[in-house]
Amino acid sequence: MYSFMGGGLFCAWVGTILLVVAMATDHWMQYRLSGSFAHQGLWRYCLGNKCYLQTDSIAYWNATRAFMILSALCAISGIIMGIMAFAHQPTFSRISRPFSAGIMFFSSTLFVVLALAIYTGVTVSFLGRRFGDWRFSWSYILGWVAVLMTFFAGIFYMCAYRVHECRRLSTPR
Fold first, then answer.
1. Where are the alpha helices (DSSP H) in the chain?
2. Fewer CB within 10 A of the terminal residue: the chain, N end or C end?
3. pTM listed for this prediction
4. Does 137 score more than 80 pLDDT?
5. Domain total for the chain?
């Protein structure tokens, strides 16, 4: 059980760090505009060497930002639940802590997939046509790696829950 929780905590830490880095950086998309290099993220865009805040309140920007923030919050709360499960803190005695941590990581995975799907759909259908020479960049890719890490953290915690439940049911009372 502890090896599953240790693997879950490792994946959770890495996934959460990747989520925060992907959300905070401005290299989701790179393109050429009027012959100069430009890139943009969720919060700002840069033309040449000068960066500007994204002040437009466009629905897909707001949805992507909101889902990324929700994903990071779920991942952080999953880490807290995972640490409590690892340390056997008796805070929630009626609720399985590994199961709760697994659910939080699966929720985090769902939210980041929704954010990346919205961003991908709008970028490919609208912005991709607007800018001829464009590509997704490393911040966007970190978001997809964070999907894998939070998903595997959820898998590890569900396995830890299953091992714990099998041991609990097999011991005589």
1. 2-24, 59-87, 97-122, 128-130, 138-170
2. C
3. 0.86
4. yes
5. 1
